[in-house]
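ERR on first pass: missing label on line 2. Operator R.T. fixed the label and resubmitted. Corrected input:
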Amino acid sequence: MGEMISTRVAYGQALAEFGGRENIYVFDADLKSCTMTKYFAETYPERFYNIGIAEANMVDIGAGFAACGATALVHTFAIFACGRVYDQVRNSVAYPGLNVKVVGSHAGLTVGEDGATHQCIEDISLMRTIPGMTVIVPCDAHETREATRAILDTHGPCYLRTGRGTVENVTDTVKEYRFAIGKGITLTGGDDVTLIACGLMVQEALKAEKLLAAEGIHARVIDMHTIKPLDRELVIQAAEETGAIVTAEEHSIIGGLGGAVAEALAASCPVPMEFVGVEDTFGHSGAPLELLQQFGLTPEHIAACARKAIERKNK
Amino acid sequence: MNVQTRKELQVWAAKIRKTALKTIQDAGSGHIGGSFSIAEILAVLYFDQMHVDPANPDAGDRDRLILSKGHCSPAMYAALALRGFFSLDHLSTFRKIDSDLSGHVEMHVPGVDMSAGSLGQGLSTALGMALYGKSKKRDYRVFCIMGDGEIQEGQIWEAAMAAGFFGADNLIGFVDNNGLQLDGPLEEVMSPYPIGDKFRAFGWNVLEVDGNDVEQVADAVTLSSHIHNGRPTMIVADTIKGKGVSVFENQVRFHGGQPSPEEWQIAYAELNSKIAELEGLK
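pass 2 clean. output:
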């Protein structure tokens, strides 16, 4: 079993580790102890600004820094980073193509007890639809560290999604793992079905792969850490070689990873496809694991969807 | 301010109006009222106060201007063209397909420091530039022009609070206080008054001037740049919407509406007459 650590903590540590460049500026909206920018703030206080509970102002202050040549990283909960300040991100960050990284923490249902107002299940969809926006959803601490380094080295607007709870490290033991924005990572081989997942659903997909293997079904598992630009080549290759696709995400089934994969496949290689995610509904309070169970974000449900997709393929 | 400088700036203001008007006429649409109310402010900034170089529009140490009321692009594009950032001929492409001169100001146009259009955001982006300048110990100034209706947006007050808190004394704002917004007088739609007291309460210096008087505007900018008391400055500029053309002045319909054929004629006649008068040809 891999180490348990949340992606937000891994992000905060990586930001402090790789944030030494003097043109990197970090902004938070009174959540530095939650988004974990506190590590950067302790290390580089002269390049950290707490804007208070004023997310719109924060995003645009970041845009102002970026317009002068800085790399600006703005931080708040995903629900505010993508919903509350959508207009600021769209019009003052993405439209001018500025080098602002929007980092949304506490995404998805697993924010848990805080309930629906804080459970952002639309962020991937909202950010992905903005022209020029890169969208990254790392699955574990190891991958988050790599993603953080990559976005700091890449110019342009970007959304990075992190989560509240601890998740198991799974990518640190992957042979020849190399993180590149826009390149998915094939974690297991298999020709019967492909499970494409992002965020904490990568771990669940790996568990589903084991359930399926016990039945003699060989599933390919892809860690699709970048939703945009999507690794279309890898997706289409998987569809051609396995003939059935299941996507899994801690997000609405509308417009997220599943939507992105479906768009790619519908145009190039339509195969039976099933979607694991939050159906068109809000979340609610509960323990994170209870919520994942209740909303079907489980290895069992992924496996069931895989069987269904294979059945449709064989019809 | 000596008489000559004053006259020159008045000429520039009149030329900004005339050029903006032609730009709007060629485009078939565009915002006359708010473009005309800020002509003196733009004349003072681009032709007297701001350290900018049309040959090097991205110079790191330049003064910056964010036109937060980005729909008044005709006036800004006119000022930039007159200042030499791009050719006057280029203005005929305004709002047309494949032109870089979009309906609202766009930062990839030479001389434009920040895209704007969605109201309420410019003071925050200006503050970001000002704080960056402080962090890098550069002595450039950042100017931001807001509409008076625009300050109904809550984000303006987030930025006002933060600029005061951070002591951004290299930030100089203007509120174009022309009293009218798209749906009518601010006092009827949603009053933001008193404007100056609100900014003072957030820790700003506030100067209240006749915004259509080049000398008062220039003096306010000079004073703002030399106060050095650790506070940003807001210049509440009392202006007339549609200033400079009798049939446009204080008319709500010229927020975004277009003149009749007769009104076009009156406008050009009055602006030409004003320029001729100022240049001493009449």
